[in-house]
Amino acid sequence: MDERFPRAARLLRRADFEGTLRSPQWRTSNRYFRISARQNQCGRPRLGLAVPKRVLRKATQRHRIKRVIRESFRVRQGDLPDQDFVVGVRGAVGEADNATLFGALDELWAQARGRPCDGS
């Protein structure tokens, strides 16, 4: 799989977000992020972002975090199962530097690779 981040690799519809958040097949989290995931029928992993204003007040902070999440996903997507992933943030994410955030996301993506993707 190429390492671009095309439109097909994004969760765009509200129904996709809500389905993944309301009835995920699995969840995982750490100090900075939480990931909910659910099997999809698209033949590729897809990413949705939940970076609310109430967690990170400044737009520059929100955009930085989104860029870090997208870049981490873009590089790792070839190793991930065909699932929809919604990545949310926790309050501590605003004070962490990018290297720390990439490390935290790498841990969560590693957990995602270890999960069964048979729909159970």
Structural class assignment: alpha+beta
Could you list the spans in which at least 5 consecutive residues all have pLDDT below 50?
none
Tally of DSSP helical segments: 3
Major beta sheet summary: 4 strands, mixed
Give the fraction of residues assigned to helices: 25-40%
Measured by DSSP, the beta-strand proportion falls in: 15-25%
Give, in spatial order, the strands making up the sheet with the most strands.
1-2-4-3
Overall pLDDT, averaged?
Answer: 91
Known CATH architecture: 2-Layer Sandwich
Write down the CATH class: Alpha Beta
SSE order, as H and E? Answer: HEEEHEH
Termini, distance in Å? 25 Å
Total number of β-strand segments?
4
Describe what this molecule looks like in 3D.
With 120 residues, the chain is an alpha+beta fold. The protein has three helices and four strands; from the N terminus they run H-E-E-E-H-E-H. The protein has a four-stranded mixed sheet, sandwiched between helices.
